[in-house]
Specification:
293 residues, mainly beta, Porin, 10% helix, globular
Length: 293
């Protein structure tokens, strides 16, 4: 993509998606919407130390190894009215059956926002692997992303990046997770910014878990470069889980909260989530269907 095309693209994204934000145009983050879906959304993004669903591929690939002997398949749909219209689709698979020593993950996601009447498709595909040694879990992923725009004068960005994750679970009560996102550094303006994140999960009793995450963005000129996430989960019974969370977005000055619940069965689960940004108020609706065998 030429410098002029890149400038046009960044201006469109910055003005249309983050019109009310306080960040600089170099704060562009095309990956942010993918985190605001499903279970992660319902916990305010504080999910890196849990990562028990197929969203581990996205939040912390090390977490994939927690479900040993299981094949997990999840389909996602999210509607985000922060744009003129915005839809996100995804399918993810985690396989811990094929190998006794590793977990494999594959995920494809596509968001379809509309920027001022111009339709776009933001795609990413992720391939991940995770291992376990005692209480330590390690994981890594390679991702490819490409954006197509319904405008012959705009060539959307494309690229390849990688994430690395670590999780430490010394007991069922405590879990700590760390993730490095987009470790391949490229342009000054990064569509997928370099970020480091750390999180902790504390299970007070088997039915109640509290989580907290901190994410630092190294590719922003905004005054603040650290976002905070807080969440919790309550297991009402063996069939129902309730979640809630709050994200302190200090980069774009646009906090959001999330709530949701899950209907749990042995082989199938459904996760419903709702999120809302604070200023301006925009709503996010998400549904995920998960099958385990």
């Amino acid at each position: 993509m030429s410098k002029m095309q890149r400038l046009i693209w960044v201006l469109i994204v910055s003005c249309s998606v983050h019109a009310s934000a306080q960040g600089d145009i170099s704060t562009t983050d095309l990956s942010s919407d993918f985190f605001k879906t499903g279970v992660g959304l319902s916990m305010g993004g504080a999910y890196r130390a849990m990562a028990t669903s197929t969203q581990a591929i996205l939040y912390n690939p090390a977490g994939m190894r927690q479900n040993i002997g299981t094949l997990m398949i999840t389909g996602d749909y999210t509607y985000n009215n922060a744009y003129d219209s915005g839809h996100l689709y995804g399918i993810s698979v985690i396989d811990t059956q094929t190998s006794q020593n590793a977990a494999y993950g594959l995920s494809f996601q596509q968001s379809r926002p509309s920027f001022g009447g111009v339709d776009a498709k933001n795609n990413q595909i992720i391939m991940a692997i995770a291992h376990q040694v005692g209480a330590f879990y390690t994981g890594g992923s390679i991702k490819g992303y490409w954006v197509t725009v319904d405008n012959p004068n705009i060539d959307g960005p494309k690229g390849v990046d990688m994430d690395l994750g670590l999780m430490f679970r010394p007991s069922e009560m405590i879990s700590v997770g760390f993730t490095g996102y987009n470790l391949i550094r490229g342009h000054k303006i990064e569509e997928y910014p370099f970020q480091l994140a750390g999180g902790a999960a504390l299970t007070l009793i088997p039915q109640v878990t509290l989580t907290a995450d901190v994410v630092k963005n190294f590719n922003t000129l905004a005054t603040e470069d650290i976002n905070l996430h807080f969440g919790g989960r309550i297991l009402v019974n063996d069939q129902i889980a309730v979640r809630g969370g709050y994200a302190k977005d200090r980069i774009f000055n646009n906090d959001y909260y999330g709530v949701g619940f899950s209907i749990l069965a042995k082989q199938a689960q459904i996760h419903l989530a709702f999120g809302q940004t604070i200023d301006p108020k925009t709503e996010i609706f998400s549904v995920s269907l998960e099958y385990r065998m």
